[in-house]
Each structure stands twice: as structure tokens, then as C-alpha cells.
Amino acid sequence: MEPALTLPEHGLPGHLVDFVGALRRSGVAVGPGETVDAARVMAALDLTQRDHLREGLAAALLRRSGHRDVFDPLFDLYFPAALGAGARPVDVPRVEDGGPVDVDAVRARLAELLRDGDPAALAELARAAVDAMGRSGAAGSSVHGAAARPGWSAYQALSALSPETLLARILDDLRVGDEFADEVLRRDVRDRIARFRTTVTDEVRRRTAESRGREQVARSAVPTPLEQVDFLSAHGEQLARLRRTVHPLARRLASRLAVRRRHAKRGELDMRRTLRRSMSTGGVPMRPAHRKRRPGRPELVVLCDVSGSVAGFSHFTLLLVQALREQFSKVRVFAFVEHADEVTHLFEPGAELSGVMQRVLREADLVAFDGHSDYGGSFGTFVERWGDAIGPKTSLLVLGDARTNYRDPNLTVLKRMVGQARHAHWLNPEPRRQWGSGDSAAPRYAEVIPMHECRNAAQLADVVESLLPV
């Protein structure tokens, strides 16, 4: 079955506009300028060279590399691969004519193609395998006697084939006896298996789009952009990828701050000098005088919950603070679970940050009894041991979900800390709608200190940019 590219009424331009609309609905900011550039790319490239078209449209439409995870599935949805020139459809072996699929024979054929590394044949086998082994019943109920539409499952097809389990068989045929060469072959075959899995997934997505419509598939099958993934629900791989975006994000924030500072060169109005000048113009202040700005870098004190529920959020935020430390004259970092301890030395310039949170939990004195967050006790410990860390030049930043495990929130001590600081803010990774539910003391804390929702990297960047000193 050859995929067909069904164009809208307005042809390729209309198809491109639909594709751009899908990107926007998935959280990728694409403006008119980028859309015009993409149209020029499509006019300049050979549309039969699909890889060239993919990279050209990505270069024209994407501003951030993190959006590539959204772009690629949507590209496959709106620009599906056609049956390659000269390629022949693959027949899936069956036990008997019209009978069930002979899974062992299909796996043997897959092992041959993975060994030979034939991309076109592997792609055709993936399509045939989905057709024969990926059907998952009806995608919708029959209405007025109409036949229900078939559904498709990449998981079902891949579970039957289990391509990863063929690795040893393939390597036995390819092994040359040289340790380095065998390792290269191992990695090459693993890459072929990964590409085969991707091809199966793309084929299922394409068939589902034909059955249900591209828009429905785009809403359910396209991943959330990385910067919009909630910290509290992100899995390990997503958190690792988020941490790799810290330095590009810090550079963007620093460049925006530089622009703000250029536009804010004048200080406050100097009333005395303005009135003195107005004496020469009959009392009319024709030439207002401004005080000279004395931009100073404030000190920053960060107090962060590193318990399991918010550790990913705190880690990302601390890495961002470390990357932006040039914006501050001094940075001190304090971690807490049941009580607080200073961990500034772990975030000094040049420090190894890959396993920093494990070191914080291992080396800092944070737990007294059960290891559950105690915000009130931690605030008390902080003020008792390091109360002088907060002064009139200090910006205080608290990181945490404000869930006290029903313990005393110690609002009195927090009020004292906020009163001593020049600025104070609380960044909370929980959705605002959950503040105050269960053991959350967020509404009570928010009466003492400005609290900001920072569920994902995009929100965090916006908040941090607004808080950076000008």
C-alpha cells in the first residue's frame, strides 16, 4: 500500500499552512516570516528528496533545537514517505495461505535485512508487518451499519517481532574476531534496529491519520515540547535533556537582560535638579534631570527543597542559577529537607555538576527523622545558623512545592527572612490550582512572599527573566 499525500483545496501552499498550524497547536512558535521562508524552501527543493525537505523545513521553521521532537513526528504525518522507486512490497510469511502469520519466518527475514542493512527493504518489511501484525481491532464503533475503521498498534507489531532479541543472532553472522570492529558492528546493528522501530511507529501513525484524520493524531501522538514538560511529571530521560538546555537558556536570558539594561540607562527623576533647571524657563520643567544609575549586582541566597518530589525542579533551577551567577555579586545556596545546610561549595564556578544532587543528599546534613519535607523546621534552622546571610542587598529565592507534611509552616520566621531581604520570591513547580490542597501551605506562604508558578522550563525562564536585576 503506497502512502498518498492528500493535499487540501489550495494545493501545496495550503498543505504547508496546515502543517504550520499543527506545529503551533503543539506549542511551537512559528510566525508569518518563518512560514514564508518555508514556502521558499519548498519551491527550491526537490520534493521527492524527503530528507532534504525535512531538514530544509526544520531550518526555516524552528527557532530552538528542543522543538525537533515535535517537528519530526508532525513532518512524518504531513509528508509521509512514499514507496521507494524500484522497491517491491514485501509479503509476510504465513503458516498457510490465508492463515495466521508465521512470526518465526518474519523474524528470520527481519534478521537477514538487519544484517544486510538494506533500508528500502526494511522499510517495506515494516509496512508489511504493521499490515499483518499491527491491527488492533476497530478504531471506532459502527454507525448505522457502517463498517468500523481498523485501528493500528506499533506496540503490538513490535512486541511480536521483538527486533532487539535478534541482535545476538545477527552479530554471530557478522563477527570478525576483532574487538574494536565487533563493537562498531554491534552499534551499527543497534542503530538499524532503532531505525526499524521508528519506521514501524511512523507507519502506524500514518495509517491512523488516514483513518482518523491528521489533526486527531497530532493531538494524541505528538510529544509535548521539552520546555513545556512539567518538572513534577518528567521522567529521567526528559530531566536529563532539560539539564542539557540550561546553558543555551542562560545565554538567551543574559542577552535579553543586556537589551533591557541598554533601554534603562536613565535613573530616577531628580526633582531638585529638575526644579533648579526650570528656573531658567519660567518654572516650566523643560529639561528633566535624572539621577545617574548605579547598577549594582545584588547578592543571591537560594533556599531549595531537595526532597524526592521536587528534586528534578530544584536541580534544573540551581543549574540555571549557576549559569547566571555573573549577574550577581555573590551566590549562596542552601538545601533542605527536614532542616537546612549550606551547599554553596558544590555550585562554585568550575565545579562538576553532573552528579551534584547526589552529592547534596549524601554530604549535606538535611535529614533528622523520616526524610519528609519540613519547611518550618528548615526555615528555623536557616535563621538560627545563617540568619546574617540575608541583608539589605540580598535577593532571596525559595524553591519548593510548599507541601509541609502537615507540620508547622513557621510563617513568623519566613516573615523575618523576607523583611531582611531586598527582594524575595518563591518558585513553586506545582500547578496553581493545586495550591492549598492536602498538605500544601502555598496560599499561606503566598501571603508572606510573592509566589510564582514554575511548572516547566518555559514558565521558569519567563519568571527568572522578570526577576533578574536590571
Q: What does this protein structure show overall?
A:
The protein has 470 residues and is an alpha/beta fold. It is built from 19 helices and 10 strands. The termini are far apart. The model is unreliable at 138-147 (pLDDT under 50).
> What is the strand arrangement across the widest sheet?
7-6-5-8-9-10
**Helix-strand makeup class:** alpha/beta
Radius of gyration: 30 Å
- The fraction of residues in strands falls at 5-15%
Number of strands: 10
Briefly say what this structure is.
The chain contains 19 helices and 10 strands.
Fold blueprint:
Layout: H1 11-25, H2 32-44, H3 50-61, H4 68-78, H5 103-116, H6 119-133, E1 135-138, E2 150-152, H7 154-161, H8 167-174, H9 179-212, H10 214-221, H11 236-244, H12 246-262, E3 266-269, H13 271-278, E4 290-292, E5 299-305, H14 311-323, E6 330-336, E7 340-342, H15 356-363, H16 375-386, E8 394-399, H17 411-420, E9 423-428, H18 442-446, E10 451-453, H19 457-467
Parallel strand pairs: 5-6, 5-8, 8-9, 9-10
Antiparallel strand pairs: 1-2, 3-4, 6-7
List keywords for this structure.
single chain, 470 residues, alpha/beta, 6-stranded mixed β-sheet, two-stranded antiparallel ribbon, 10 strands, 49% helix
